[in-house]
Amino acid sequence: MSLSFDPAEYEQQLAAKRQRLVELLKPFNAPEPEVFESPREHFRLRAEFRLWYEDGKPYYAMFEKGNKYKPILIDQLPIASRRINELMGPLLEACRAEPMLGRKLFQVEFLTTLSGEALVSLCYHRPIDETWDAAAQRLADQLDILVIGRSRGRKRVLSRDHVIEELEVNGRTWRYQQVEGGFTQPNGNVNQHMLSWAQDAAGSNDDDLLELYCGNGNFTLPLSTCFRKVMATELAKSSVYSAITNMEMNGVENVTLVRLASEEVTQALTGVREFRRLQGIDLQSFDFGTVFVDPPRAGLDPATLELVRGYKRIFYISCNPETLAANLLDLSSTHRVTRCSLFDQFPYTHHMESGVLLERV
């Protein structure tokens, strides 16, 4: 069966999200939000499935939250990319036919791109070694995919562990390395809208940008064209490595990347603490006029709130409108919301991505 959903309800669900955002931002006299819709189908570039066995035959399975014993068996997932849906059947058939691939396989993870690449991770409840590699390579050649094998404590990579995405932002194509297991925006079309909106709202500046939580450089690359220099910070090593690669692939040379948590950035910029990771970086050479934050669901901590308050402009991308509103309550004494937006990254769910631009009063 296919997992059910109703595209006919999309407009109504999006309108409800918009109204929820309007109500949350009403105390801050925010302008009307710009709304960026998602494709109704085939918008999700990542998907993972547990396998459920009946009479020894594997099926893709998903589960209702909190119930891991009653599977929903599926053969297609309309919200997933067309490439994922094209691969689901042939991949499972190949694993059924080849014991080296199918034995004790318990999970399949797909990572696809708008540019057409696909990486599939096969996860096992048994050790895998070089004898698995030959069968996996045949599968990769047959389906024109990248394949990774995972078992406890082991990861076998046949060629590479990443895909290369291409995103169109205001007429320019940016290339991104997206690593298996790393965070990437799941809805590529809406991500392009997010990046274009951020770049447009940033405009042209003769001062510098401070970016916290930069990840693999998703926003960093297009925003680098809007500022004299950028200092981007990220804590996760894998994301830092991808961000460096992405800057090199795109010829971006005005970004300084620093591996620090947001709390550490606050300590460094306020002179509370020195960091060995900042050796060779002249913080005094930066003239930050704008700060860009894309925090986790918990929002900004009190120290980071105080840090960002010191800048003329604050770009805030949020995956949790409730914590966004709570943070705006703190920031509204010094800044006002001049632009806001709703990015429908997650259709058919209550989740939404939103963005605001705050300017000092």
UniProtKB/TrEMBL annotation:
Electron transport in keyword set: no
Catalytic function, reaction form: uridine(341) in tmRNA + S-adenosyl-L-methionine = 5-methyluridine(341) in tmRNA + S-adenosyl-L-homocysteine + H(+); uridine(54) in tRNA + S-adenosyl-L-methionine = 5-methyluridine(54) in tRNA + S-adenosyl-L-homocysteine + H(+)
Keywords of the record: Methyltransferase, S-adenosyl-L-methionine, Transferase, tRNA processing
Signal peptide per UniProt: none
Active site: C319 (nucleophile), C319, E353 (proton acceptor)
Enzyme class: transferase
Binding site for S-adenosyl-L-methionine: Q185, Y213, N218, E234, D294
rRNA-binding as UniProt keyword: no
Xref: InterPro entries: MeTrfase_TrmA_AS (IPR030390), MeTrfase_TrmA_CS (IPR030391), SAM-dependent_MTases_sf (IPR029063), TrmA_MeTrfase (IPR011869), U5_MeTrfase_fam (IPR010280)
EC number: 2.1.1.35
Matching NCBIfam families: trmA_only
Role summary: Dual-specificity methyltransferase that catalyzes the formation of 5-methyluridine at position 54 (m5U54) in all tRNAs, and that of position 341 (m5U341) in tmRNA (transfer-mRNA).
Family annotation (PANTHER family): TRNA/TMRNA (URACIL-C(5))-METHYLTRANSFERASE (PTHR47790), TRNA_TMRNA (URACIL-C(5))-METHYLTRANSFERASE (PTHR47790:SF2)
Family per record: Belongs to the class I-like SAM-binding methyltransferase superfamily. RNA M5U methyltransferase family. TrmA subfamily.
Protein name: tRNA/tmRNA (uracil-C(5))-methyltransferase
Source organism per UniProt: Halopseudomonas salina
Lineage: Bacteria, Pseudomonadati, Pseudomonadota, Gammaproteobacteria, Pseudomonadales
Gene name of this polypeptide: trmA
